[in-house]
Amino acid sequence: MFRLGSKPKAAFPGSGPERPPGGDATAMLEIRQLRVFHRLIEAVHGIEISVEEGQCVTLLGPNGAGKTSTLSSITGAVRATGSIRLSGEEISRLPIEERCKRGVAISPEGRRIFSNLSVRDNLIMGGAVRADKKALFAEIQEWFGHFPVLGERAEQMAGTLSGGEQQMLAIARALLSRPRILLLDEPSLGLAPQIVGKIFDIIKDLKARGITILLVEQNAAAAIAVSDYVYILNNGRVTRHGEAAEFGDGSGLMGELTGMHA
Amino acid sequence: MRRLSLTRAQRRGLLGSALLSLLILAIVGAYYAWGEAYQARILYAAFVNLLVVVGLQTFMGNANITTFSHAAFMGIAAYVAAICVTPAAMKAIALPDAPWGLNAFQLSPVISALLALLITGGLGLLTGLFMARLTGIGVTIVSIAVLVIVHSIFLHRTDIFKGNQAFFGIPKIFDLPYVAALVIVAIFAARLFRESSVGLKLRASADDEVGARAMGVDVYRARLIAWVVSTLFFAVAGIAYAFYLGTISARPFYFNFVFLTVAMLILGGLRSVTGAVFGTLLISIGLEVVRWLETGPNIAGVKLPQMLGLSGLLLGAVIVVVMAFLPKGMMENREVEDFLPTERH
Amino acid sequence: MDYAIQQALNALSFGAEYALIALGLAIVFSIMSLVNFAHGEVIAFGGYSMVVIGTLLTGNPWILMVGVLAGCVLASVALERIAFRTVRGADLTTGLLTAFGVSIILQNLYLLLGSPRPMAATQFIFLDQTLSFGTLRVSSLQIYETVATILAIVALTVFLRRTTLGMAMRAAALDFEMVRLCGIRANRVIAGAFAISGLLAGLACIFIMARRGSVQPHMGFDPVLVAFVACVIGGFGSLPGAVLGGFLLGVIEVLVLILLPQEAGGLAHAVVFALIALILIWRPDGILSPAREKGDKR
Questions:
Q1: Alpha-carbon distance B227 to B221, whole Å?
Q2: pLDDT value at position B4?
Q3: What tens digit of pLDDT does each residue of A117-137 get?
């Protein structure tokens, strides 16, 4: 059972990078004119997205809309043109590993935890960019405090964990690199409804601690509930965006989200 | 009577084969017009290589699986054909200890060739039965195993094969025109196989095995057929080899020849018969030039040093450079008829 | 009884050598899907380093051992940097053929720059002495070989389990991109794998040289062929599989030598390969192959 800790904001592992926050009123993440290519096919046709520090922004849309492609272009896993600025710094020409060092962390679609490594080793991998290993190990212990179920399975092979446990592990692993922004790709995918609820509680808690989040989800209602801002993607373009409150519980979005129009 | 209807690809295949055949005929014609006697041997060897490489293309190119056993099958066919066709009197000297009365008979060239084809094809079927169900890397390693096993047997049973020593006295049955004709037939056969339904299924499974299976393609059967067909190509090459040289030994049927032919195929382009032809011709010619350089010839009064190993070096370099910059080979997927100006649709 | 111990030691030491080289192949393959046929040339490079250092610097065997190890690591890492980086990420066939090409180039370079004839390098032969324990006579080299291999395997296991780079290599075998997404540089992981591969090759080279006492251009070919087979029967890409395959081959080889009549000794090679083929028919993906569904990411 996931326990919400009552630790003060600054002590939460992963809250705020080890570097000073980026300057003035520039957004944490600014994307302009983003075009994403898969081989020769353009999957995203020049979109613009902004994420302020401490915000939780959600990308909604049907399958194939380009949501995962957008996240992949931020991490550097796919070829893209356009501008991607993290805390004012242009990262779009950097290789994957560099972007992680600059503060991009992702819990990718399908979790992609290292199933042949133990839970603890997965977390160590998450903190691979950290110079201070002692601090890393201490933080890992703190995470075991927050996610006791991970602590119980610390030496187990990560492949033996349940879906929900793997999702917790993926999030913890991402946050151990002390990122500036956390990218979450479909965290609720394949999980039972009660577990989904727990995962979104975790996301709410992360947000409460000031972590900047860019969330991609199919579960519109749950996503809107934790978000500040929402973008709707369709066929590689942003068709609608606005404050989360405007979208209610997402029930009015059926047409846009399934790609079918009445 | 059913009309033979060919797909567009098959018609283009016929066209392409015809074009390549013209090239072969042109080369032979050029030899007869201006060539010197010693070049016949080189040309013959190039054509035998061509038979092997085209056969290699049939399996390796269509299935995209690297195999190394072709030298073994070629050797088996060569030995069977050679032993059968050599007069008994000759064999009594060459193979004094041959068991099972192998040195006491002689068969006509046609029967010898058929026997070689039968035995080699049979072994091809046998090996194919378990190769076809292995994964890509498994096929490669078992093909290496076949190569090594056959080579070991050649070396060990000197009473039949004479090991690394020359089995001599084989009558010369073939000449340049014969092997050129064989090459032309082989080109047509390989092209038609490539564009046949089995060939198409094989190529589909090479790119996406799971997808092809999901569409009902019997990948196992397609691979098996291609494997046996390629074995027959190698057998023909072995027979042509034995029927010309007068002597054979176990040495050429091992890794060096394998590397050479694989290099020829990948230079030209794994996936097309045209690639097999061009790659073979290019390397055969190039190799002759390099071999001449290796001996330390005189060029414009300058005596070059002997450079043993230069041909191997350049061969390796060809493979590496092609893989790095031109992994699909010169032709990539294209056949020769793709270069003709196309009709507007 | 003595005979049994001697043969057991034979099997262990043969197997140890095969396991060392097979591990070198498996480590690279598990991360990059590259069958590094040029690995044998790395071993030969170690031998040639011995000749060069022995001629130019010193005949001190301990310094030479360090030289061999360093030379093999250098050769292995350089190979990756120069030859294999361009085909990183390419399919299996491309990588395999590139490795073959590199192997041929190196063998012929040794031929051109060295000599087609064996060159003497006898500084390690002192390792091979006959020891007597009562009625039992064993080769000291075999004991060294077996012990060294076991120590190397233990050291490798510790490295893979306890260090970040080691963990990254294990993770990369399953999902290389995710390792990069954690900020670990791909080049470092791959160079690390090749360095370890080189180190193992160097260790094997020391023992090979202790037995042969000479180098020649094609000496790397046979060991890597056997190692390749060991990997395949153990399950290509699986590190425990490579070790298992290596020792299994050692056992098979000794058994075949014992059981086959004297005249058929030349057939030993063929029989071993025939047995291999049988194992593959039984388990086409190798005995300990890493479980992989056809639709998996790799």
A1: 10
A2: 66
A3: 999 999 999 999 998 889 999
Q: Is C266 on the interface with B (CB under 8 A)?
A: yes
Question: Which C positions 143-202 lie with beta carbon below 8 A of chain B?
Answer: none
| Selection from B268, A117, B212, A78 nearest residue C179 by Cα | A117
Q: Residue ranges per domain, chain C? A: 2-217
Please report which confidence band the pLDDT of residue B301 belongs to, taking 50, 70 and 90 as the band edges: low
Sort strands C214-215 and B302-303 into parallel, antiparallel or unpaired: unpaired
Q: Find how far residue B86's CA is from the centre of its chain.
A: 24
Residue B66: which of C96, C108, C112 has the nearest Cβ?
Answer: C96
Residues linked to residue B187 through DSSP beta bridges, in sequence order: none
| Entry pTM | 0.84
**Residue-wise burial string across B184-202, b where 16 or more C-beta atoms lie within 10 A, e elsewhere:** bebbbbbbbbbbbebbbbb
Average the pLDDT over each of A15-24, C46-55, C271-280 and give the range with the smallest value.
A15-24
pLDDT of residue A259: 60
Average pLDDT (B254-259) is 85
Total number of residues shown for chain C: 298
**Rounded distance, CA A111 to CA A190, Å?**
11
- Cα B75 from Cα B252, distance rounded (Å): 8
Q: Where are chain B's structural domains?
A: 8-255
Chain B, 124 to 143: residues with Cβ < 8 Å from chain C are: 130, 133-138, 140-142
Q: Is B209 on the interface with C (CB under 8 A)?
A: yes
Q: Which residues of A209-239 are buried (b: 16+ CB within 10 A; e: fewer)?
A: bebbbbbbbbbbebbbbbbbbbbbbbebebe
pLDDT digits (tens, 9 = 90+) for C155-172: 999 999 999 999 999 999
Instruction: Report the distance separating Cα C54 and Cα C52, nearest Å.
Output: 5
* Long-range contact set of residues B314-318: C-beta below 8 Å, sequence gap at least 24: B314/B286, B314/B290, B315/B259, B315/B260, B315/B263, B315/B283, B315/B287, B315/C104, B316/C100, B316/C101, B316/C102, B316/C103, B316/C104, B316/C105, B316/C106, B316/C107, B316/C108, B317/C101, B317/C105, B318/B263, B318/B267, B318/B283, B318/C101
Q: Which domains does chain A have, with CATH numbers?
A: 28-104 (3.40.50.300), 108-182 (no CATH)
Long-range contacts of range A187-191, CB-CB < 8 Å, 24 or more positions apart? A187/A107, A187/A215, A187/A217, A188/A217, A188/A218, A188/A219, A188/A222, A189/A109, A189/A110, A189/A218, A190/A163, A191/A163, A191/A164, A191/A167
List of long-range contacts for A20-23, beta carbons under 8 Å, 24+ apart:
A21/A53, A21/A87, A22/A53, A22/A86, A22/A87, A22/A88, A22/A89, A22/A180, A23/A87, A23/A88
Residue type for position B41: R
Nearest residue of chain A to residue C178 (CA atoms): A112
Alpha carbon distance B125, B224 (integer Å): 8
Residue type, B125: L
- pLDDT tens-digit profile of B63-90? 888 899 999 999 999 998 888 888 877 7
User: Which of C94, C108, C280 lies closest to B138 in CB terms?
Assistant: C280
Closest-CA residue of A relative to C291 is: A116
> What ipTM is given for this predicted complex?
0.86
Whether C82 has its CB under 8 Å from any CB of chain B: the answer is: no
Phi first, then psi: what are they for B216, rounded to 5°? 90, 10
- Is residue C294 scored above 60 in pLDDT? no
User: Could you report the per-residue pLDDT of B16-64, keeping only the tens digit for each?
Assistant: 888 888 888 888 888 888 878 778 888 888 999 999 999 999 999 888 8
Cα distances (angstroms) measured from residue B316 to each of C34, C90, C106, C127? 17, 19, 8, 36
- Give percent of chain C above pLDDT 90: 42
The string of pLDDT tens digits covering residues C58-71 is 888 888 899 999 99
Residue B37 tokens, joined = 């006697």
